[in-house]
Amino acid sequence: MKKILSILTLAALVIFAGVTFAANKKSVKPNDGKVVVPGDAETKFAKGYEIYKAKCAACHQLNGEGVTGAFPPLKNSDYLLADKKRAVNQVLNGSNHEITVNGAKYNIAMPPQVDNYEDAVAVINYVLNAWGNKGGTITVDEVKDIKIKR
Ligand code: HEC
Fold first, then answer.
1. Which of 146, 38, 47, 137 shows the shortest CA–CA distance to 91?
2. Ligand 1 center to residue 1 CA distance, Å?
3. Is the CB of 76 under 6 A from ligand 1?
4. Residue 83's pLDDT is what?
5. Mean pLDDT throughout 63-84?
6. Which residues neighbour 4 within 8 Å (Cβ) at sequence distance 6 or greater?
7. pLDDT category of residue 39 using cuts at 50, 70 and 90
8. Is there an atom of ligand 1 within 6 Å of 135 CB?
């Protein structure tokens, strides 16, 4: 009886170890060399994240912190979070006037970045939710009356 019990215990241990090993294996992902470890926004707004990396990160940086005195931050930006539609207009038409972001003044021009509502909404929904931002989302229908000036 004792022997059977110890065999059963051993079998249980082996199965447990196997399951733990399999679970660990699943969570190991190859390092793809990205600077920013993708979080929820990178998955949820994947299209916007791709546009961001291609068209915005050069100035606003991958971490959304911008460059002091030149390119305003998008992470925790009072200006961005105050008006989603203005942000969509910003990427469609750019801007060239002084703006104040989190108390600091910026006046370098930002050229237009995208030429259609779908891409503009995708990238703005990403920045509204990246880096801990909790800016909600905006839909294409809500921005269709913005004139694309080029
Ligand atoms: C060439 C550099 C450059 C690129 C590329 C660029 N921006 Fe900007 N961005 C700026 C500058 C400079 C301003 C301030 C413009 C002004 O003062 O009129 C700005 C302002 C903004 C603002 C409003 C201010 C704020 O910080 O909330 C948003 C939102 C924004 N950019 C989003 C984007 C997004 C999204 C992209 C990519 C689709 C992008 N920008 C690409 C330079 C850039």
1. 146
2. 75
3. no
4. 98
5. 97
6. none
7. confident
8. no
CA distance 65 to 49: 15
The answer to whether residues 113 and 56 touch, using CB atoms and an 8 Å cutoff, is yes
Choose between 61 and 25: higher pLDDT: 61
CA angle 138, 141, 147 (to 5 degrees): 95
- CA-based torsion, 52, 58, 60, 63: positive or negative: positive
Check pocket membership of 97 for ligand 1, CB cut-off 6 A: yes
**Do the beta carbons of residue 123 and residue 74 sit within 8 Å?**
no
The Cα 95–Cα 25 span in angstroms is: 49
Q: Are 51 and 123 in contact (CB under 8 A)?
A: yes
Asked whether 122 lines ligand 1 (CB < 6 A), one says no
Q: 102: pLDDT confidence band, cut at 50, 70 and 90?
A: very high
Q: How far is CA 51 from the centre of its chain?
A: 10
CB 98 within 8 A of CB 106: yes
- Nearest atom in ligand 1 to the alpha carbon of residue 72 is 26
With CA atoms as reference, report the closest residue to 93 among 108, 112, 107: 112
